[in-house]
User: Fold these one by one.
Assistant:
Number 1:
Amino acid sequence: MTDDNVRQLVLDTIASLRQARSETTRTHIQKTVFMAEQLGIVPPESFEFVLHLYGPYSFDLDQSILDLLASKELTVAPGPGGMGGSYSTDYGVPRTELQPLAEWLGRKGVRALEAITTVAYVEARGEPGVIARVLRIKPHLGEAEVLRARAEVEKAKREVVRPPLG
Amino acid sequence: LEIRDPIHQFIFPSELEAAVLDTLPLQRLRGIHQLSTSHLVYPGATHTRFEHALGTMELAGRALDALVRNSAPDVREEVGLVDEPAISRARSIVRLGGLLHDAGHTPFSHLAEELFPVVNGRRLEHEHMTANIISQDEVATLLGPELVGPVTSVAVGPKFSDISDPQVAMLASLVTGVLGVDRMDYLLRDCLYTGVSYGAFDIHRIIATIKLTRDSAGGIAVALREEGHHVAEQMLLARWHMFHQVYLEPTRRIFDYHLTRYFRYWLEDHGFPGGVLPTDIREYLGITDADVTSDMYRSDHPDARALTRREHLRPVWTFEENDFEKEDDAKRFQEGIRTKFPSVHFDNVSTSFTKPGDGEIWIDSPGGARTLEEMSLIVRTLRSTRIRRAYAPIDERGDVIAEIGAEMEQRRKPWFGRHYPDNQAEDVK
């Protein structure tokens, strides 16, 4: 993707989350873009994700957010307790293909987002014993919530409509 | 072994640390200026990455000891800090990670990052070199197979190392995170050597209040005790001021620009095609600041003369944040000026009081952890900013200032922006 495409993806993700009445914290943005990549809604490897804050996390995406803040295309207001600032923009438009993801993830708390995206991250790497692996990486999560997260990821894989890429 | 340090008084490396200190990658850091060209503006800023590496190691050990002392047993257990042998191993990993965290720095520190080759669509960064240096040759042999992995992860952080072990993630955060000792050491050291005072903060207080807490997801995070929140504020402000006043100082930025161009030419001239840095560790470690600067003083290359004879572009205008509605607007404006004055250089840089990947700063308060942002009006107010400056050759300064002034007036914003007065002593603070 070109820099302009990346910039627009971030702005449109924020607009989509806002439309879904999300608090649109940095964690919501990070995890929505990650799942959009995983589900083939945006080109794979638009951003490189590694395990960092609350599961998979992209430093490049964070840099894009900081750049958009600096250029005033994003604004941030105090967010919900413990989840950082709440982002909004006048320069993005909600995208049809992102909307189901925004509806699914946009109003979740950080713990649920961490469980869902860490499951998807471990699954995507093809490592055996997904549940046990997630519990080793995230020892504060319980087995029941990891199983629930996996079920949600499986459901999203079945139901989310992928647009033709290219 | 005991080493005197101007910030931390005495540093006592262990036997293993002393052996690592004697390797080529660490000794090479004596030849890498911490602040690239800042010593041309702040003459005292001649310190190197070597002493910063030592300082980071020292603070890493102190921070871990405070964290163990201040943290509840259940959270310590979740990151494996269960008994003295485990704590001792963690101390060794975090100190070695601190010592080695800059081992892969380019000559002139961050200045030459753009001279790394692009591999698989991404430009290499110095942390890739650090990881390679730790895992190969003499350093790896000293560390042994058990320590190489965790020390590499702690040294380069999560962006450059796949960290799935909660203890290693915590130790990496202690070195490279938002409350990391890397940041603490360079702020204090740069402040001392440049002679400015706004980078100072109460290092003893902040270290003494470090602990582990549970974040909003229930995971383990490095935090401060409640009484540490003012000094955390102080440290963020120190970083903000150091970026605005020292790291992004206008004349230093233009020296960096000229030196980057000269370094690219130098690399090509020394058989590195395309003027990019070598990735072979032996070749890479063979280049220090001195190799380039000694040739620079003998060179008539215009970018060498910019530094050796002060024939550099001069700062002529700093734009205000509200001068341009959007990035495209700024780009068009700058292209227009460069059409008329091709020698003009625009420097566009974003700065923030945090950097990508920084998590929340957690403050452990009665009733649970809160973020510093929740507690601090100052932190809520600090935001990313875009700094835009124009530079021109000395003999075009007047014309360029007049042109930019006229353009800005047409935009009905004559009160925005400012040009540099003719008598500004822009070279030496």
Number 2:
Amino acid sequence: MLLAGAALGTYLMRSTALWITDAPFEKRWLEYVPLGVLLAMSIGGVGGLALSPTLMVACAAATLVVVASTWLHLPLILRVFLGCLVFGLLR
Amino acid sequence: MRQFLRGSGRALGVGAGYLPIAASFGALAGHAGLSRLQTVAMSLFVYAGAAQFAALEGLRHQLPWLGILGVVLLINARHVPMSLSCRMLFRRFDRGAQAFLFHGLTDEAFALDNAGHPEPLPYYLGVHVCCWASWIMGTAVGLEIGTKLPARWLSFALPALFLSLLGDWILRHRSRRLIPLVLMGTALVLAAQWLLGSFGLLLAIVGVSGLGGALYARPPVVRSPA
């Protein structure tokens, strides 16, 4: 029951755009949902790992490396790899 | 096929990040009383990391299933605005394809889908299939070998992915008028998470989106790559 309810409920929420009518939801705020998700998940993800002074240093260094490599337009997989490498070395 | 592989390649970072998390889920599920079939079925059909771990915690404490279901749905409620936001992106495709894409609309897949210009359907299928397959494989690996994956190295993979995509979003929309929104959004996310935990993230997503809609009359302008 739990599995079926969780699967169905999650799918219904994920597919809201499929079964809801157009008009009320063509709003400006939806253009900013990606920014909201990216901000929340970035800050939540880094904050969730920085649980001790050592981990905070590792998180800060890895964050800086990812930001710098993004600025340099490195490929996405390389940015993730560099972030993991610095975090793994310093933690 | 080329577009499918391009999408899959783009999702490799997510796949690497999913493996240790899904493996942890697989390893812990047995201790919470789930059979192997139930564990894999949950990763196949629910396919939502935080909600799956919350369900395990509820099962471990033998909470009533209706209460656990409520928590799962509350955690996943953030998918409603994400789905509505993807409507513009996916509505070019037939309803069958949309139905499949929406099943795979995790936070990470959503971020990848919205990280660039609109792409053809095989690209999005590549992203979603790669992410989903990684999650299922990770769960199966966790059932077999427990938590022996190198989590020390991979635990920063998903934060790194989100930071990268956030950077891409800011660079693509580079405009001074967005600075107040990014600063206020950061403060809102920090406050909401500190006060309300994971439910705060849902409120923060809706809050940042609402702020953007309230502050700016026009949608964010996408700049061409330099």
